[in-house]
Amino acid sequence: MATKADIEHHYDVNNDFFALFLDKKYRAYSCGVWKKAHDLEQAQEDKLDRIIRYANVAEGHKVIDVGCGWGGMMHRIAERFPSNEIQGVTLSTEQFEYVNATKAANVKVELCSWQDFPLPEKKFDSIVSVGAFEHFATFEDHMAYRQRDVYKGFFDWCLSISTPEAYLGLQTIVIARAPNSLSEVRDSRYLLDKVFPGSGLPSISDIQAAAVDKYEISAVSRIGLDYARTLSEWNKRLEMNKSLIVERYGQALFDHYRIYFDSARRCFETGYVDLYQVSLKRAKPLRILTR
Q1: What residues contact residue 101 under an 8 Å CB cut-off, 6+ apart?
Q2: Residue 29 CB: number of other CB atoms within 10 A?
Q3: CATH number of the domain residue 125 falls in
Q4: Mean pLDDT for each 10-residue chunk of the chain (291 residues)?
Q5: 173 within some domain
Q6: Number of domains in the chain
Q7: Does 286 fall in a domain?
């Protein structure tokens, strides 16, 4: 799994820096849903609402957000379900401090990994996780064919902290195929080495294999091209704020994010990588054992 240092390498640049290109209300740092949206703000709200629906969140639920970022998902749940108890988990110190400073009364956040999160006295009724699954297995785990064991461990943990009726709303980037060109190899290596160290992308078959006898797929959306558009929108806002970014954070950081956004956008546009949103419900026994 990506370490705390790996996560902070990317996410702890500066909270105000990310605010210059993310949506204004939720600071959602993942793919938006563009089916009906005309701007980034609506695309991100539609994304949050779909994952909330995929997690089957209802009034009175106790909800956990694994990899909660700047708290946008928790903010949206608190807006829609004021009586819910909402728990966030993050490895980013900057995000943890931001959520603590801006959270609603019914929101809590822990600075830890999901493996280190203590078993709750009262189990969760819904689980959401957006853009965190990619960080659970390292590139080295994939090279050693250990990634499915890592994902099985996550699904086992989800089962251990949740009620029998709880759903998991999951959003993750997946590797869709082998690279077709040297350009695709270069783009993916830049993302893994320079942007998200300690991380490796799952395949959809990795998720399916790890979920066997634990979760079954209730619904799924495949929206990789939506991520290409999201990255283009982030890049526009980055360009609009170029002078401020260079003044505050330096030319090197601006250039790094331009390369990052362009590399990732190309990966989605070519279909080398994709984006899945999945609704998972606890699997029921397939057989009744008799003597």
Answers
A1: none
A2: 20
A3: 3.40.50.150
A4: 71 88 97 98 98 98 97 97 97 94 94 95 97 94 96 98 98 96 94 88 96 96 98 98 97 96 97 98 75 56
A5: yes
A6: 1
A7: no
